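queue> holo job accepted (NAP)
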Amino acid sequence: MRSKEVHLLERPQGLPTLGQFGIVETDVSDPAAGELLVENIYMSVDPAMRPRLAGQTPLNEAMGGGAIGRVLKSRHAGFKEGDLVESMRGFRQYFVSEGNGLSKLDADGMPLPAYMSVLGLTGLTAYGGLLVTAALKDGESVFVSAAAGSVGSVAAQIAKIKGCYVIGSAGSDSKCRWLKEELKLDAVINYKKEVLRTALKSAAPRGIDVYFDNVGGEHLNAALPRMNALGRIAVCGMISTYNNFGAISEPVTTLSNMIYNRLTMKGFVFYEFEPLRAQFLSDMKRWLKEGRIQYRSTILQGIEQAPAALIGLFSGANTGKMLVQLVKDP
Ligand SMILES: NC(=O)c1ccc[n+]([C@@H]2O[C@H](COP(=O)([O-])OP(=O)(O)OC[C@H]3O[C@@H](n4cnc5c(N)ncnc54)[C@H](OP(=O)(O)O)[C@@H]3O)[C@@H](O)[C@H]2O)c1
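queue> job finished
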């Protein structure tokens, strides 16, 4: 069987270009005893893939990333044909596995894209980052950057559920409208049109207790002077830096605000919230059922679109989770 996969051909400097990726056809053999053959259905496209293109991602090999697939053939005792499986073997159509790193997905009634966003890694990131790292308290004032993205849109809505005053920034009027009109954020800033520092000052009349930072750079510079005493900055990501050599950020010139306001700034990675997964899923499924959390996905069709999807994250081509669909959703 032939399988198309996405290779990195050349290490990007700055924003990647389509020509730095290739779609390559390879042979996939039939599964041997103890193996299974998986066909990927959806694959996740994540900002953190960009810094890895600088070195960690091998050249001329299938790239990796989160995926949900379906077992086409199984000679493995733990999996049967038709099972849905989650893996980190995205960026390819088919793969043969001995089962390592695969987990079965019990898609209990939600569409598959939900398991790759609001009920998956990005949902857990938002939940843990806000409730554990930032130790959010009910009724606080919260600022979320990249608020119309996958992590940001969930973080902003959890903060609303906790009775907070929520400010979100995003890069287009239509994203800001979604945040204000449908997700019911209290204030929104189109950072591409407004001067962030002044817009944030007027959007945060009570100051900011928690800044959930997805962006870094000028967003962080704008948030620091607005932070209230004992405020917390949960550093989830710094997408504004990822295309820079070494992911070097713009100078953070407002750090002195940390002193008298006794601020805490703490980074985190989603896997540290694994012990919370059962609680997270129970809360999130209830909120979804109650209509208190909405989610969106931008789904590009066909593996050939994977490079464009990755590059598109840096121009804001996605609302909610960026996914690529490889075959029809069962
Ligand atoms: N710590 C963790 O465990 C963890 C886990 C997952 C993700 N993350 C981080 O969380 C952040 C969001 O990830 P995600 O998967 O949810 O992606 P996402 O927010 O769905 O997509 C990225 C968004 O970032 C915005 N953006 C791109 N370049 C920007 C810039 N220079 N300045 C401001 N905004 C910019 C774009 O929206 P606009 O149209 O609004 O510009 C784009 O849609 C990323 O920094 C990522 O690395 C961290």
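queue> The first helix runs from residue 49 to 52.
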